[in-house]
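Cross-posting from the chemistry board since nobody answered there.

I work mostly on the small-molecule side, so proteins are not my area. We synthesized pyridoxal-5'-phosphate and want a rough idea of how it might sit in this target. Sequence and SMILES are below. Is it possible to get a predicted 3D structure of the two together?
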Amino acid sequence: MSETISNRLMRVADLRAAVSFAHAHGLIAIIDNTFASPINFRPAEAGFDLSIHSATKYLGGHSDIVAGAIIGRADLISRIGRTAAHLGGSLDPHACFLMHRGMKTLGVRVRHQNQTAGAVARFLTDHPKVTRVNYPGLESHPDHARARELFDGCGGMLSFELRGGVGAADAFIANLTLPISAPSLGGVESLVTRPATTSHSGMPREERERAGISDGLIRLSVGLETADDLLEDIAAALAAC
Ligand SMILES: *Cc1c(COP(=O)(O)O)cnc(C)c1O
C-alpha cells in the first residue's frame, strides 16, 4: 500500500518499485491516489491492482460529501463488493448525485489547481519570510524528477514553513481572507491547516519532527480561486505576519 503523494511533505515514492515488489511477493499492489486524482496519475497504467480514493476530496470536489472509492481489477472488486454489501455503508442517493455531478468537472478543476498551486509554490519560494516549500512541481523538490516522469500534473497540495515558526504560521493563517482554515482538501475553496494541530496532533512532537513535520508547517489545498487573487491574498497575509 502506497500513497501517490505523501501528506504534509508531498514526497513521491518510487511507485514502480512498489508495484514490482508487491508482484514479486504475490501481493496485491494498492495505492491511495487521493492527492493526485486520476487526472494527474492513473495507477493501473503503472501496474497497481487497486487504487483507493477519498472521494470526499477531488472526486467530489465541493467539500459537501463524505465518500470513498476503490477502483481496480474486476475479480478483486467483486470480492470487496460482497464484503461491503455485508457491512453496509452504502452511499445515499443524494451524495451519489453530488459526487457524480462533481466528477463531471474533475478534469478542469484539477488542471486549474495544478497551475495555481505551481504559481503559489514559486511565489512562496521567492518570498523572504518563507524558509521551505514542499511541492513536487518545484525543481528544488527531492522527488521532482520522479513526479515529472510519473504524473501529468503535480496537484493542488503544497506545504511550507515561515521564518517566524508557529507564531508566524498562526498569524499568517488568521490574516488570510480567501483560504479557509479547516481540514480536508481538494474542494473549490482553498483550505489551509497547520498539521501539528490537526491531522498530526495525535502524534508526539518528537515523532512528528523525525517525520519532518515541524510545528510551524502550513499545508495549503489550492482551490479554484483566480491565481492572481490567491497570490495577492497570500502576499498580504505574509506582509502582516
Ligand atoms: C482524507 C483522506 C482519507 C480519508 O478519507 P475520508 O473521505 O475523509 O474518510 C484517506 N486518504 C487520504 C490521502 C486523504 O486525504
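Reply from a structural biologist on the board:
Welcome over. Reading the output above for you: The chain has two domains: 2-104, 106-240. The chain has a mean pLDDT of 95. Happy to explain the C-alpha cell format if needed.
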